[in-house]
Amino acid sequence: MTSLRLPLGPLMLDVEGQTLNDADRRRLSHPLVGGVILFARNYESPEQITELCREIHALRQPPLLIAVDHEGGRVQRFRDGFTAIPAMGMLGEAWSEHPNRAKRLARDAGYVLGAELRATGVDFSFAPVLDLDYGNSGVIGNRAFHRNPEAVAELGHALVLGLHESGMNAIGKHFPGHGFVAADSHLAIPVDERELAELEEVDIVPFRRLIDLGLAGIMPAHVIYPKVDPQPAGFSRRWLHEILRSRYGFEGIIFSDDLAMEGASVAGSVVERAQAALAAGCDMALLCNRPEQADHLLALLKWDTAPISLIRFARMHGRPHPPSRIALHESARYMNALHHLAGVGQTDAELALNDSMKADHG
């Protein structure tokens, strides 16, 4: 098959099944598309997902970016044949007693997570979550490392280092922080009434710390912070240009959160949502699980991708990871790290880890 030579576009879409169909190929060949996000429905086995990634990458040159939400805990799209990574809140519990050990485990978790995905051809995961766990948000909860911003910054950086070792860049989410509000932006339009100064003292600390350490990407929240801007952060030029880029000096890629979420509905139709996200400063906008809306968006969106965004896209392609460490189940350090994680003391983490020992890693 001859690859289509076409610059990457500003949209990331999903695909329908475990192999590409004609509709998938048509959408992914559109000039506005630059990436693909995979879900659990796209996964059957390591061999199958490897072939799907190979097929997606072969469609175009440069290859489309392939991403997945694969954080560990309840947000892990590929399971059978993959290590069951515990929720990041388990690492936070370890940090409360043994900070240095928790950071070592976070780095190991990042390497395991990234190396298994890179071995199949996935370019990057939308991880880590840098929100704080206030105990208010069901959608965040133990996806967050901790309530303490210093703990989140240190554990987040350690996980990012592990991802880098595996050949994968990291995406911090959900800027400037989704953990304080109870509402789930998948189902509602959350509003956080705090001032910018208060956000900067707590929730934004992990983002700023990792920006200073070279974080490659950020995903803003579909949350409104009315004392900063009336638009959700992902549609706000004030948040993305004035604060994130100019004030904090972030030079990496910005991905919107899913435009199909209820928290994005304030921006209008799907085309208006995409235009608003890109105009606010997102380099790439995601639309998931809405194939009819994807066709409508591809037909009507008008957007010229800036050269700087093309450079940022190129940086997100996965890198080869060391062949000597692909056989992760043979690494004594890796196995020991998982046993330490199981010792954090939560039953669900122990069960996940026990299951992972039975997995047949490819």
Q: What is the gist of this entry?
A:
This protein has 362 residues and is an alpha/beta fold. The protein has helices at 22-28, 46-59, 88-97, 99-120, 149-166, 196-201, 205-212, 237-247, 270-280, 291-300, 307-315, 332-342, 347-358, and strands spanning 4-5, 11-13, 33-38, 60-61, 65-68, 70-72, 75-76, 124-125, 171-175, 217-220, 224-225, 229-232, 253-258, 284-286.
How would you characterize this protein structure?
The chain is 41% helix and 13% strand. The protein has 362 residues and is α/β, with parallel strands linked by helices. The strands form four sheets. Strands 8-5-3-2-14-13-10-9 form an eight-stranded parallel sheet. It has a two-stranded parallel sheet with strand order 1-4. Strands 6-7 form a two-stranded antiparallel ribbon. Strand 13, helix 9 and strand 14 form a beta-alpha-beta unit. The chain is globular, with a radius of gyration of 19 Å. The two termini are 26 Å apart.
Strand order of the largest sheet: 8-5-3-2-14-13-10-9
Helix/strand structural class: alpha/beta
Query: Cα-atom Rg, whole angstroms?
Result: 19 Å
Q: How many strands appear in the DSSP assignment?
A: 14
Biggest β-sheet strands, sense, barrel: 8 strands, parallel
**Run of helices and strands:** EEHEHEEEEHHEHEHHEEEHEHEHHHH
Strand content: 5-15%
Uncertain runs are 323-332, 344-362
Distance between the termini: 26 Å
Q: What do the pLDDT scores average to?
A: 88
Which shape, going by the Cα principal axes?
globular
Helix count from the secondary structure assignment: 13
Give the helix proportion (percent range): 40-55%
